[in-house]
From TrEMBL:
This is Small integral membrane protein 1. Pfam families: DUF4731 (PF15875). The chain crosses the membrane at residues 49-69. It comes from Myotis davidii (David's myotis). Keywords: Membrane, Transmembrane, Transmembrane helix.
Length: 73
């Protein structure tokens, strides 16, 4: 199945780029920011810090819930 318009490009992540808008310089600000924060060393660091923060949030919520369930009356 061939695309009818040769200026339309489909990537494997189901994003559609039309014509000259596919260049990285013309990408929307949030797309450029997400590419920068989610790839390379900075992306690995951000995911690691996010995982550690999520761990502590779940740990504190579990501690508080356990305290409230098991506290003496």
């Amino acid at each position: 199945m061939e695309p009818q318009d040769p200026s339309v490009q489909y990537s494997r992540w189901d994003e559609v780029s039309v014509g000259a808008a596919s260049s990285p310089e013309e990408a929307p600000c949030c797309d450029r920011l997400s590419r920068k924060l989610c790839s390379g060393r900075l992306g690995v660091t951000m995911r690691m810090l996010g995982g550690v923060a999520l761990f502590w949030v779940i740990f504190i919520l579990g501690y508080v819930a356990g305290y409230l369930v098991h506290k003496c009356k």
